[in-house]
Design goal:
Largest sheet: 6 strands, mixed
Number of strands: 6
Distance between the termini: 14 Å
CATH superfamily: MoaB/Mog-like domain
Helix content: 40-55%
Radius of gyration: 15 Å
Strand content: 15-25%
CATH topology: Molybdenum Cofactor Biosythetic Enzyme, Chain A
Shape: globular
Number of domains: 1
Structural class: alpha/beta
Strand order of the largest sheet: 2-1-3-6-5-4
Order of helices and strands: EHHEHEHEHEEH
């Protein structure tokens, strides 16, 4: 089957990152890990841990830009400011729990703290939205288990795969 170009957005959620007080290494890690795929990173922003700002970007990138995948990074823990999962749940139409289950399982092979992730994933129209942790190491671990299924996920979300077309 002919490879496809995956149109991607990376949304880093970080109060300090959005204020310029911390460098975004997790967003760069996403680009690096996905280099083995035909990926076009069309959007990359850093926003503070504010649910409505996060949700507004997710809506815009889905509804207007029609990206295939949006990865968020950060804001998935227990801190009261961590609201990325809530913002994501406010915009998705359907949940995709297998993606986050796989990420937590892979993460737990490295640290028991991975079970504390509140990350979620889902579909809004034909866009797949996946919450990744904020740490660069955890992003790399999470993506390691997702890379093998991303092209298939995009094809099926687009409605263009085998008998599903």
């Amino acid at each position: 089957m002919k490879p496809i170009t995956i149109r991607l957005g990376i949304l880093t959620v970080s109060d300090k990152g959005s204020a310029g007080e911390r460098q975004d290494t997790s967003g760069a890690a996403i680009r690096e890990v996905l280099a083995s795929l035909d990926v076009a990173v069309e959007r990359h922003e850093i926003v503070p841990d504010e649910a409505e700002e996060i949700a507004a970007v997710l809506r815009r990138w889905t509804d207007e830009d029609k990206l295939d995948i949006i990865f968020t990074t950060g804001g998935t823990g227990f801190d009261p400011r961590d609201v990325t999962p809530e913002a994501t749940l406010a915009v998705v139409d359907r949940l995709t729990p297998g993606l986050t289950e796989a990420m937590r399982l892979e993460g737990m092979r490295h640290t028991p703290n991975a079970m504390l992730s509140r990350a979620t994933a889902g579909l809004r129209a034909k866009t797949i939205i996946i919450n990744l942790p904020g740490s660069e190491r955890a992003v790399r671990e999470s993506l390691a288990c997702l890379v093998p299924v991303l092209e298939h996920a995009v094809r099926t979300a687009r409605g263009r795969y085998g008998d599903h077309a």
